[in-house]
Amino acid sequence: MTIRVVLADDQPLVRSGLRVIMADHTDLEVVGEAATGAEAVQLVRDASPDVVVMDIRMPGMDGIEATRLITAGPATTRVLVLTTFDEDDHVYGALRAGASGFVVKDMALDDILAAIRVVAAGDALIAPGVTRRLIADFIGRRPAAAPERSPRPVEGITEREREVLTLVGRGRSNTEIADDLFITVATAKSHVSRLLTKLGARDRVQLVITAYEMGLVTLPR
Prior knowledge:
Elements: E1 3-8, H1 12-23, E2 28-34, H2 37-47, E3 51-54, H3 63-72, E4 78-83, H4 88-96, E5 101-104, H5 109-120, H6 128-140, H7 159-169, H8 174-181, H9 185-198, H10 204-213
């Protein structure tokens, strides 16, 4: 199966370099290029790619806003944020906007291509350390006067799904969940998909927050 990719970056050399590298891999096909966030959003509507490799800082609409619009729409396109900036604020902004992963441009090209494949397969690239900071950030952004939310009831979730949700909350990938629970990757992915549906979660990041709210994971003190 060929993974259809849109490259969104305001630097032509970056787009050109990625396109040339992907041309050597038969499972990857570049179906469009965008120099702005607005162009990326339009390309998703026109080409329905599997993955958008999205820069954060672009003229006009930035990559975070473009990611928010893409993931809020009807398309099943996933976004992999690729940037020179790896500060926490950019990580949080991209993940909260709906990105499925976050990599930096100085990574090895093979690692970037591997990240595209991981995201296209429905997994996410959220390291455990980022998961912990994401939850802490989520807590810190609640209005001071807002009442504490009670943990969500777990009715309708099987014991196995509860185990999977706990592992998602700890930042585990589908492959790691499969290894931890001695199940296949396909089964782990199926469990995650059912959790997304049952909990009304938009993406894996929301599952992380849900796991925290249910008390399945806690922040280290």
